Protein backbone atom coordinates (compact mmCIF):
# COMPACT_ATOMS: atom_id res chain seq x y z
CA UNK A 1 0.00 0.00 0.00
CA UNK A 2 2.87 2.29 0.82
CA UNK A 3 4.65 1.56 -2.41
CA UNK A 4 1.61 2.19 -4.41
CA UNK A 5 1.18 5.60 -2.92
CA UNK A 6 4.88 6.78 -3.43
CA UNK A 7 5.56 9.08 -6.40
CA UNK A 8 7.32 7.42 -9.28
CA UNK A 9 10.26 9.12 -11.09
CA UNK A 10 10.47 9.10 -14.78
CA UNK A 11 13.62 7.55 -16.26
CA UNK A 12 14.67 10.91 -17.63
CA UNK A 13 14.46 12.62 -14.21
CA UNK A 14 16.26 9.68 -12.59
CA UNK A 15 19.13 9.98 -15.04
CA UNK A 16 19.30 13.71 -14.34
CA UNK A 17 19.54 13.16 -10.58
CA UNK A 18 22.17 10.47 -11.09
CA UNK A 19 24.26 12.80 -13.28
CA UNK A 20 24.10 15.62 -10.71
CA UNK A 21 25.13 13.27 -7.88
CA UNK A 22 28.02 11.89 -9.95
CA UNK A 23 29.17 15.40 -10.85
CA UNK A 24 29.11 16.51 -7.20
CA UNK A 25 31.03 13.45 -6.13
CA UNK A 26 33.67 14.05 -8.84
CA UNK A 27 34.08 17.67 -7.81
CA UNK A 28 34.46 16.59 -4.21
CA UNK A 29 37.15 14.05 -5.15
CA UNK A 30 38.95 16.63 -7.33
CA UNK A 31 39.02 19.21 -4.54
CA UNK A 32 40.23 16.62 -2.06
CA UNK A 33 43.01 15.58 -4.48
CA UNK A 34 44.12 19.20 -4.95
CA UNK A 35 44.27 19.69 -1.20
CA UNK A 36 46.40 16.55 -0.80
CA UNK A 37 48.82 17.63 -3.54
CA UNK A 38 49.24 21.08 -2.00
CA UNK A 39 49.94 19.59 1.43
CA UNK A 40 52.38 17.09 -0.05
CA UNK A 41 54.33 19.84 -1.83
CA UNK A 42 54.62 21.94 1.32
CA UNK A 43 55.78 18.90 3.33
CA UNK A 44 58.39 18.08 0.69
CA UNK A 45 59.86 21.59 0.83
CA UNK A 46 59.98 21.50 4.62
CA UNK A 47 61.65 18.10 4.58
CA UNK A 48 64.21 19.30 2.03
CA UNK A 49 65.03 22.31 4.18
CA UNK A 50 65.37 20.11 7.25
CA UNK A 51 67.65 17.69 5.41
CA UNK A 52 69.83 20.56 4.25
CA UNK A 53 70.14 21.85 7.79
CA UNK A 54 70.85 18.36 9.09
CA UNK A 55 73.57 17.78 6.51
CA UNK A 56 75.13 21.16 7.35
CA UNK A 57 75.00 20.33 11.07
CA UNK A 58 76.55 16.90 10.48
CA UNK A 59 79.31 18.38 8.35
CA UNK A 60 80.04 20.94 11.06
CA UNK A 61 80.11 18.16 13.62
CA UNK A 62 82.65 16.17 11.60
CA UNK A 63 84.82 19.24 11.26
CA UNK A 64 84.63 19.83 14.99
CA UNK A 65 85.64 16.24 15.65
CA UNK A 66 88.63 16.64 13.32
CA UNK A 67 89.88 19.58 15.38
CA UNK A 68 91.44 18.53 18.71
CA UNK A 69 89.71 19.96 21.72
CA UNK A 70 91.73 21.93 24.27
CA UNK A 71 91.23 19.37 27.02
CA UNK A 72 92.63 16.65 24.79
CA UNK A 73 95.84 18.58 24.28
CA UNK A 74 96.53 19.47 27.88
CA UNK A 75 98.70 22.48 27.12
CA UNK A 76 98.16 25.93 25.69
CA UNK A 77 101.56 25.69 24.07
CA UNK A 78 100.51 22.58 22.17
CA UNK A 79 97.21 24.13 21.23
CA UNK A 80 99.08 26.88 19.43
CA UNK A 81 100.50 24.25 17.10
CA UNK A 82 97.06 23.18 15.89
CA UNK A 83 95.89 24.71 12.55
CA UNK A 84 92.63 26.72 12.75
CA UNK A 85 89.38 24.71 12.36
CA UNK A 86 87.52 25.51 9.07
CA UNK A 87 83.97 24.66 10.21
CA UNK A 88 82.40 28.10 9.95
CA UNK A 89 82.65 31.05 7.67
CA UNK A 90 83.03 33.35 10.64
CA UNK A 91 86.28 31.70 11.72
CA UNK A 92 89.19 33.99 11.04
CA UNK A 93 91.29 32.58 8.18
CA UNK A 94 94.92 31.74 8.88
CA UNK A 95 97.34 34.48 8.18
CA UNK A 96 99.05 34.28 4.83
CA UNK A 97 102.02 36.20 6.16
CA UNK A 98 105.13 34.07 6.62
CA UNK A 99 105.92 33.02 10.15
CA UNK A 100 109.52 33.55 11.20
CA UNK A 101 110.72 30.33 12.78
CA UNK A 102 114.23 30.33 14.19
CA UNK A 103 116.08 27.15 13.25
CA UNK A 104 119.51 27.72 14.63
CA UNK A 105 121.07 24.64 16.09
CA UNK A 106 121.19 26.25 19.47
CA UNK A 107 118.29 27.79 21.31
CA UNK A 108 119.77 30.47 23.44
CA UNK A 109 120.44 34.16 23.39
CA UNK A 110 122.63 34.20 20.27
CA UNK A 111 120.27 32.95 17.56
CA UNK A 112 120.95 34.79 14.34
CA UNK A 113 119.59 32.91 11.31
CA UNK A 114 115.79 32.78 11.03
CA UNK A 115 114.26 30.52 8.41
CA UNK A 116 110.92 31.32 6.80
CA UNK A 117 108.12 28.79 7.29
CA UNK A 118 104.93 29.62 5.37
CA UNK A 119 101.49 28.86 6.74
CA UNK A 120 98.81 27.64 4.35
CA UNK A 121 96.82 30.74 3.27
CA UNK A 122 93.49 29.19 2.31
CA UNK A 123 92.62 25.51 2.26
CA UNK A 124 92.66 23.95 5.73
CA UNK A 125 93.75 20.60 4.30
CA UNK A 126 97.02 22.00 3.03
CA UNK A 127 100.09 21.26 5.15
CA UNK A 128 102.65 23.93 6.09
CA UNK A 129 105.21 24.29 3.36
CA UNK A 130 108.97 24.60 3.64
CA UNK A 131 109.45 22.99 7.09
CA UNK A 132 112.66 23.78 8.96
CA UNK A 133 115.62 21.83 7.58
CA UNK A 134 116.19 20.00 10.84
CA UNK A 135 112.67 18.84 11.69
CA UNK A 136 109.71 16.86 10.41
CA UNK A 137 106.39 18.61 11.03
CA UNK A 138 103.59 17.08 13.08
CA UNK A 139 101.29 19.96 14.18
CA UNK A 140 99.62 18.29 17.14
CA UNK A 141 102.57 16.93 19.11
CA UNK A 142 105.51 19.04 17.94
CA UNK A 143 108.37 18.18 15.63
CA UNK A 144 111.29 15.81 15.52
CA UNK A 145 114.42 17.93 15.34
CA UNK A 146 118.12 17.32 15.14
CA UNK A 147 119.64 18.05 18.56
CA UNK A 148 120.61 21.59 19.43
CA UNK A 149 122.79 20.35 22.28
CA UNK A 150 124.81 17.13 22.64
CA UNK A 151 126.47 15.64 25.71
CA UNK A 152 129.57 14.29 23.98
CA UNK A 153 131.52 12.90 26.93
CA UNK A 154 133.07 11.47 28.86
CA UNK A 155 132.36 7.87 29.76
CA UNK A 156 132.01 7.32 33.56
CA UNK A 157 132.16 11.07 34.06
CA UNK A 158 128.52 11.66 35.03
CA UNK A 159 126.86 12.06 31.63
CA UNK A 160 123.77 10.07 32.59
CA UNK A 161 123.25 12.24 35.67
CA UNK A 162 123.49 15.45 33.62
CA UNK A 163 120.99 14.12 31.09
CA UNK A 164 118.49 13.02 33.74
CA UNK A 165 118.86 16.26 35.67
CA UNK A 166 118.49 18.58 32.67
CA UNK A 167 115.51 16.76 31.22
CA UNK A 168 113.54 17.82 34.31
CA UNK A 169 113.48 21.28 32.73
CA UNK A 170 110.19 21.82 30.84
CA UNK A 171 112.03 23.40 27.90
CA UNK A 172 114.25 20.36 27.34
CA UNK A 173 113.37 17.22 25.40
CA UNK A 174 116.04 14.55 25.69
CA UNK A 175 116.61 11.19 24.08
CA UNK A 176 116.93 8.55 26.79
CA UNK A 177 119.17 6.05 25.01
CA UNK A 178 122.53 6.64 23.36
CA UNK A 179 122.11 6.74 19.55
CA UNK A 180 125.86 6.43 18.74
CA UNK A 181 125.15 8.13 15.43
CA UNK A 182 128.43 10.00 14.92
CA UNK A 183 130.63 7.05 15.83
CA UNK A 184 128.79 3.84 14.81
CA UNK A 185 125.72 4.66 12.71
CA UNK A 186 126.78 7.65 10.62
CA UNK A 187 126.15 5.83 7.34
CA UNK A 188 122.44 5.63 8.21
CA UNK A 189 122.06 9.35 7.50
CA UNK A 190 120.62 12.39 9.25
CA UNK A 191 117.01 11.40 8.54
CA UNK A 192 117.50 8.21 10.52
CA UNK A 193 119.18 10.19 13.32
CA UNK A 194 116.42 12.83 13.41
CA UNK A 195 113.74 10.18 13.57
CA UNK A 196 115.23 8.89 16.85
CA UNK A 197 114.73 12.22 18.57
CA UNK A 198 111.71 13.01 20.78
CA UNK A 199 109.15 15.47 19.49
CA UNK A 200 109.59 19.02 20.71
CA UNK A 201 107.93 22.43 20.44
CA UNK A 202 109.56 25.52 18.98
CA UNK A 203 110.63 26.87 22.37
CA UNK A 204 112.15 23.55 23.50
CA UNK A 205 115.69 22.21 23.10
CA UNK A 206 116.41 18.69 21.92
CA UNK A 207 119.34 16.99 23.68
CA UNK A 208 121.09 13.66 23.21
CA UNK A 209 124.10 12.07 24.89
CA UNK A 210 126.71 9.63 23.65
CA UNK A 211 129.90 9.80 25.77
CA UNK A 212 132.06 8.00 23.20
CA UNK A 213 131.81 10.96 20.81
CA UNK A 214 134.50 12.82 22.77
CA UNK A 215 137.16 10.21 21.96
CA UNK A 216 135.98 9.48 18.39
CA UNK A 217 138.27 11.01 15.79
CA UNK A 218 135.60 11.79 13.19
CA UNK A 219 132.85 12.92 15.58
CA UNK A 220 133.81 16.65 15.70
CA UNK A 221 133.85 16.97 11.91
CA UNK A 222 130.60 15.06 11.50
CA UNK A 223 128.77 17.04 14.18
CA UNK A 224 130.03 20.33 12.71
CA UNK A 225 128.77 19.20 9.31
CA UNK A 226 125.32 18.65 10.84
CA UNK A 227 125.39 22.04 12.57
CA UNK A 228 128.38 24.27 13.29
CA UNK A 229 126.38 26.02 16.04
CA UNK A 230 125.33 23.01 18.10
CA UNK A 231 126.15 23.34 21.81
CA UNK A 232 128.46 20.70 23.28
CA UNK A 233 128.52 19.55 26.90
CA UNK A 234 131.51 17.61 28.26
CA UNK A 235 131.29 16.05 31.72
CA UNK A 236 134.81 15.47 33.04
CA UNK A 237 136.07 13.77 36.16
CA UNK A 238 139.42 13.12 37.82
CA UNK A 239 140.99 10.81 35.20
CA UNK A 240 142.36 8.44 37.87
CA UNK A 241 138.95 8.04 39.53
CA UNK A 242 137.33 7.78 36.11
CA UNK A 243 139.70 4.94 35.08
CA UNK A 244 138.97 3.01 38.30
CA UNK A 245 135.23 3.47 37.76
CA UNK A 246 135.57 2.27 34.17
CA UNK A 247 137.48 -0.81 35.33
CA UNK A 248 134.91 -1.51 38.07
CA UNK A 249 132.10 -1.50 35.53
CA UNK A 250 133.98 -3.85 33.19
CA UNK A 251 134.85 -6.17 36.08
CA UNK A 252 131.18 -6.49 37.03
CA UNK A 253 130.47 -7.81 33.54
CA UNK A 254 133.68 -9.83 33.02
CA UNK A 255 135.00 -11.10 36.38
CA UNK A 256 137.89 -12.97 34.74
CA UNK A 257 139.72 -9.90 33.36
CA UNK A 258 143.28 -9.10 34.56
CA UNK A 259 143.87 -6.91 37.59
CA UNK A 260 143.82 -3.13 37.35
CA UNK A 261 147.58 -2.66 37.67
CA UNK A 262 148.24 -5.32 35.01
CA UNK A 263 146.15 -3.34 32.54
CA UNK A 264 147.21 0.14 33.62
CA UNK A 265 150.99 -0.32 33.50
CA UNK A 266 153.30 -1.66 30.84
CA UNK A 267 156.05 -2.04 33.38
CA UNK A 268 154.94 -2.08 36.99
CA UNK A 269 158.49 -1.64 38.29
CA UNK A 270 159.27 1.44 36.23
CA UNK A 271 155.74 2.78 36.54
CA UNK A 272 155.31 3.13 32.76
CA UNK A 273 151.60 3.70 32.09
CA UNK A 274 149.95 1.85 29.22
CA UNK A 275 148.10 4.54 27.27
CA UNK A 276 146.87 1.92 24.82
CA UNK A 277 144.38 0.75 27.45
CA UNK A 278 141.14 2.58 26.74
CA UNK A 279 140.39 3.28 30.42
CA UNK A 280 143.66 5.21 30.66
CA UNK A 281 143.51 6.87 27.25
CA UNK A 282 140.06 8.39 27.76
CA UNK A 283 141.45 10.46 30.66
CA UNK A 284 143.83 12.36 28.35
CA UNK A 285 141.28 15.14 28.01
CA UNK A 286 143.64 17.74 26.51
CA UNK A 287 144.56 15.30 23.75
CA UNK A 288 140.98 14.49 22.81
CA UNK A 289 139.93 18.14 22.99
CA UNK A 290 142.18 19.28 20.14
CA UNK A 291 140.07 17.91 17.22
CA UNK A 292 136.99 19.56 18.71
CA UNK A 293 138.67 22.95 18.83
CA UNK A 294 139.41 22.61 15.11
CA UNK A 295 135.68 22.70 14.41
CA UNK A 296 134.11 24.54 17.36
CA UNK A 297 135.08 27.59 19.42
CA UNK A 298 135.72 26.93 23.10
CA UNK A 299 132.77 29.21 23.94
CA UNK A 300 130.48 26.67 22.32
CA UNK A 301 131.59 23.96 24.73
CA UNK A 302 130.65 23.68 28.40
CA UNK A 303 132.65 21.53 30.81
CA UNK A 304 130.81 20.04 33.78
CA UNK A 305 132.72 18.92 36.87
CA UNK A 306 131.78 15.35 37.72
CA UNK A 307 132.89 15.94 41.32
CA UNK A 308 130.79 19.08 41.81
CA UNK A 309 127.86 17.31 40.17
CA UNK A 310 127.82 15.07 43.27
CA UNK A 311 128.54 17.64 45.95
CA UNK A 312 126.58 20.55 44.45
CA UNK A 313 124.22 19.29 41.72
CA UNK A 314 122.02 22.40 41.81
CA UNK A 315 124.96 24.75 41.30
CA UNK A 316 126.43 22.69 38.49
CA UNK A 317 123.07 22.38 36.73
CA UNK A 318 122.50 26.12 37.10
CA UNK A 319 125.61 26.66 34.97
CA UNK A 320 124.38 24.10 32.42
CA UNK A 321 121.04 25.92 32.17
CA UNK A 322 122.85 29.24 31.67
CA UNK A 323 124.95 27.70 28.92
CA UNK A 324 121.84 26.42 27.12
CA UNK A 325 120.09 29.77 27.46
CA UNK A 326 117.43 28.37 29.78
CA UNK A 327 115.79 29.89 32.82
CA UNK A 328 117.08 28.32 36.05
CA UNK A 329 114.17 26.04 36.89
CA UNK A 330 116.15 22.98 38.02
CA UNK A 331 117.23 24.03 41.53
CA UNK A 332 118.24 22.54 44.85
CA UNK A 333 114.56 21.75 45.46
CA UNK A 334 114.88 18.97 42.89
CA UNK A 335 117.71 17.07 44.59
CA UNK A 336 118.02 14.67 47.45
CA UNK A 337 121.37 13.17 48.45
CA UNK A 338 121.27 9.40 48.82
CA UNK A 339 123.92 8.56 51.43
CA UNK A 340 123.77 4.86 50.61
CA UNK A 341 124.68 5.41 46.95
CA UNK A 342 126.74 8.49 47.67
CA UNK A 343 124.96 10.22 44.81
CA UNK A 344 122.17 12.83 44.44
CA UNK A 345 118.71 11.67 43.43
CA UNK A 346 115.83 13.61 41.91
CA UNK A 347 112.72 14.49 43.84
CA UNK A 348 109.59 16.51 43.21
CA UNK A 349 109.86 20.08 44.56
CA UNK A 350 106.57 19.69 46.40
CA UNK A 351 107.83 16.64 48.26
CA UNK A 352 105.30 14.23 46.75
CA UNK A 353 106.46 10.73 45.82
CA UNK A 354 109.71 8.89 46.47
CA UNK A 355 113.03 10.28 45.15
CA UNK A 356 114.07 8.90 41.77
CA UNK A 357 117.67 7.72 41.71
CA UNK A 358 119.82 6.62 38.80
CA UNK A 359 120.33 2.95 37.96
CA UNK A 360 122.11 0.38 40.09
CA UNK A 361 125.31 0.86 38.08
CA UNK A 362 125.51 4.49 39.24
CA UNK A 363 127.25 5.03 42.56
CA UNK A 364 128.73 1.54 42.46
CA UNK A 365 131.47 0.90 45.04
CA UNK A 366 134.89 0.94 43.35
CA UNK A 367 137.36 -1.90 43.59
CA UNK A 368 140.29 -1.36 45.93
CA UNK A 369 143.44 -0.20 44.11
CA UNK A 370 146.94 -0.13 45.50
CA UNK A 371 147.64 3.43 46.75
CA UNK A 372 151.06 3.36 45.05
CA UNK A 373 149.39 2.64 41.71
CA UNK A 374 147.02 5.56 42.27
CA UNK A 375 149.89 7.89 43.07
CA UNK A 376 151.79 6.86 39.92
CA UNK A 377 148.71 7.50 37.82
CA UNK A 378 148.31 10.94 39.40
CA UNK A 379 151.87 11.77 38.47
CA UNK A 380 151.23 10.56 34.94
CA UNK A 381 148.06 12.63 34.45
CA UNK A 382 149.29 15.82 36.15
CA UNK A 383 150.86 17.54 33.09
CA UNK A 384 147.92 16.51 30.92
CA UNK A 385 145.47 17.92 33.47
CA UNK A 386 147.33 21.23 33.68
CA UNK A 387 147.24 21.58 29.91
CA UNK A 388 143.53 20.83 29.96
CA UNK A 389 142.94 23.48 32.65
CA UNK A 390 144.78 26.06 30.57
CA UNK A 391 142.86 25.20 27.42
CA UNK A 392 139.38 25.40 28.92
CA UNK A 393 140.21 28.19 31.41
CA UNK A 394 138.97 26.22 34.41
CA UNK A 395 140.78 24.50 37.29
CA UNK A 396 139.11 21.25 38.37
CA UNK A 397 141.52 20.70 41.32
CA UNK A 398 142.36 17.08 40.57
CA UNK A 399 145.90 17.33 41.93
Search tags:
single chain, 399 residues, alpha/beta, Rossmann fold, 5-stranded parallel β-sheet, 14% strand, rod-shaped, golgi apparatus, transmembrane
Task: Please describe what this structure looks like.
By secondary structure, the protein is α/β, with parallel strands linked by helices. Helices cover 41% and strands 14% of the residues. The protein contains 14 helices and 14 strands. Helix 11 runs parallel beside helix 14 (371-392). It is rod-shaped, with a radius of gyration of 40 Å. The protein starts with a helix and ends in a 7-residue tail after the last helix.
List low-pLDDT spans: 1-6, 47-133
* Total of DSSP H or I helical runs spanning 4+ residues: 14
State the major sheet: 5 strands, parallel
Quote the CATH topology of the domain at 143-392: Rossmann fold
Task: Tell me the β content.
Answer: 5-15%
Radius of gyration: 40 Å
The coarse overall form would be rod-shaped
What is the average per-residue confidence, as pLDDT, rounded to a whole number? 78
- CATH C-level class of the domain at 143-392: Alpha Beta
Binding site for 3'-phosphoadenylyl sulfate: 156-160, 237, 245, 362-366
Main location: membrane
Disulfide bonds: 345-357
Protein name: Sulfotransferase
Amino acid sequence: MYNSMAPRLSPRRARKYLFVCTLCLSCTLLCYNLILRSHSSMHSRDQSSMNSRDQSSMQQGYEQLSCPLPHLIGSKKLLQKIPPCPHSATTAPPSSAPLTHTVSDIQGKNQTEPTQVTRAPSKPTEQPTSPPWNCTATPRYGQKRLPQAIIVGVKKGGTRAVLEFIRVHPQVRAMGTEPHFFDRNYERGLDWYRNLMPRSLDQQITVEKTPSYFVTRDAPRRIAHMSPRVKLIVVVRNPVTRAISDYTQTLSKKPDIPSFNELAFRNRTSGEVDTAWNAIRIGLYALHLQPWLSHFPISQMHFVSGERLITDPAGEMARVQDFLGLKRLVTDKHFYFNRTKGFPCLKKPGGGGAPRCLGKSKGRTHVQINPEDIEQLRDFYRPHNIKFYETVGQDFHWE
